[in-house]
Amino acid sequence: MTKKTKKLRRNESVFYADTLVLLLPLAVLAVYRYGLGALCRILSCMLVAVLCEIIGSLLMKCQRDVSDCSALFIGAATALMLPANIPYLIAFSGVSFAVLAVKLPLGGTQSAPFVPTAAGFAFMTLCWSDKVFGYPIIGGAIDSVNGLSLSHMLSLGTSIRPNYANIFDVLTGNYSGPSGAGCIIVLLAGSIYLCLRHRKSVFNILGFLLSCSIMALLFPRISSNYTHLISLLMELCSGVLIFSAVFFVTDPATSPSRPSHRFMYGIFTGIVCMVMRYFSSFEESTCFGVLIANAAWPAIQIRITKIKKKKQIAPRTSSAVKGDAQNG
């Protein structure tokens, strides 16, 4: 193993360890609101992810180090993106798909071309959309599935007129939705922590949120007295958009290395995610947008690099021609 490879693995281990720290307060909120059922799902998904990592590595005869915390992250993040009453088998299927069908066979933590957790969530959405978006009411029985989420209201174009109390509930995630991915205040605090620990991540997050915000202002999906501002608030706070900005758009395997490319990647991913939200038949399609951006960005980055090289070569060529003319 080369020094460069060791450094990459060490950086990835630190990144995923930090993301687990960020998931901890979200998990505490999920348990506080939904009880021990949420905790059981989080812990069992983490266990399944680690087992899939170990068993898959043995079957595929590939060396994977579970100490990088990526498997633990996949399990915890998957559980927090789902309803608190999601059937265990569905959650385990999403985790298994993320590890066994995306992460391990496509290069592992270092070089997987897609964000495994986003792929696992997309897989569950395609197979069990009614269960994936069936959210229980906070404070009610966990087996009741009659809550109305923000993403569902947006998909219907519902007229929304929130007051200050409603806005506080939106920012704290105190409404029917994913068990641990809806508290915007905690997610924004976590993004600050992540950017302090991994400074280049700020370019991914800012680019993503900027493009999502502009799209929300230009193309509102709701009717309200303050349509554009309410659209901005609801789009950013609904579903797993901010969650994806913090944990998926900053993924080290799919993210570019240069800060300028990171910013453009964030902008591109945000546009794709918002387009998917507008035109998809599913209530929440952010993860599909992340996967499409993962697939398309390498070609875009190659094109950007070629254009930059041409611009750098052109001035040198012209100066060389002028020099030859003067010498002649």
Query: What is the CATH topology assignment?
Result: Ammonium transporter fold
Shape: globular
SSE arrangement, N to C: HHHHHHHHHHHHHH
Return the CATH architecture: Orthogonal Bundle
Helix content: over 70%
Number of helices: 14
Average of the residue pLDDT scores = 87
Determine Rg (CA atoms, Å). Answer: 22 Å
Strand content: under 5%
> Structural class from helices and strands?
mainly alpha
- CATH C-level class: Mainly Alpha
Based on DSSP secondary structure assignment, what is the total number of beta strands? 0
End-to-end distance: 55 Å
* Unreliably modeled segments: none
Domain count: the total is 1
Question: How is the main sheet built?
Answer: none
What can you see in these coordinates?
This protein has 328 residues and is an all-alpha fold. It has a single domain, classed as Ammonium transporter fold, CATH 1.10.3430. The chain contains 14 helices and no strands. The chain has helices at 3-34, 36-60, 70-81, 88-103, 108-111, 116-132, 150-156, 164-172, 184-197, 201-218, 227-237, 241-247, 259-279, 286-327. The chain is globular, with a radius of gyration of 22 Å.
Features:
mainly alpha, Ammonium transporter fold, 72% helix, globular
